[in-house]
Amino acid sequence: MGAIRSAPAIGSAQLIAFLLILNSSACTKLPRDPENTLQLVQQHHRMRVGVAECPPWVVRTKGEPAGVEVELARQFAASLAAAPEWFWGGEQEHMTALECFELDLVLAGLDSNTTWKKKVGLTRAYFDEQILVGASAGTALPRALKGSTVAVMGGDVAAAYLRKKGARPSFVTDLSHVSGLAAAPEWRLHQLGFRLTDLRLLERKHVKAVPPGENGWLKLLEQFLQQHQSGVEPLAENTEAQP
Which of 2, 222, 237, 242 has the lowest CB atom count within 10 Å? Predict the structure, then answer.
């Protein structure tokens, strides 16, 4: 039987080279920003934010914008020692600018079904908005919606879901004076004092948009939003309650 050969000893220089390669491989797995979005925001102390009106997420005022997403963006910028620079416009133009790295963030009440998801970066959902049917005081809670008349804000897609369930949408401009059934986000129904039913119409998973491929920037924003999830609903209620 031949002698068993022992493995050649690894010299210190070889070991160091091996560790450097291993460390380099590990670093390549870390999120990176090809266009250095995070670095530039921190370097210039400004965050370029495109805003498109979509209450209560983005609200146009006489001064600076307001709304749930706007307030979260302010807090996020502050955590980076930066100040937001607001740019009003439409979703189309903002998303095109974002795709070309002319903006760092877009706020427009977006949800995960946006058609832009293949062209820009989207955060994971930071708030799941349930659209339900509620009943005002003195109104019986229905087990089904077929044949029922349900108040809903004009232009709300929830009207289509009501029709699918056999209900008759009644369009209003203000839900606060509705007596009977109403369809709206769960937080809004709760704010108005409606009793909630188990009749869910749809769900919106709210997200924010960032430039494509900027994974370090995206991850940092996602971490911030996750830490502030519990404050989203109170922000929405407070924004909607303001005149």
Answer: 2
- Phi, psi angle pair for 221, to nearest 5°: -65, -40
SS3 15: helix
pTM comes to 0.83
Structurally, what CATH architecture does the domain formed by 129-203 represent?
Answer: 3-Layer(aba) Sandwich (3.40)
139, amino acid identity: T
Q: Which residue has the tokens 């087990």?
A: 143
101: left (phi over 0), alpha (psi -120 to 50) or beta: left
pLDDT tens, residue by residue, 29-84: 547 899 999 999 999 999 999 999 999 999 999 889 999 999 999 999 999 999 99
Q: Is the sign of the CA dihedral 151, 152, 154, 157 positive or negative?
A: negative
128, 209, 213, 229 from 82: Cα distances, Å: 28, 18, 22, 21
CATH level 3 topology of 37-126+207-241: D-Maltodextrin-Binding Protein; domain 2 (3.40.190)
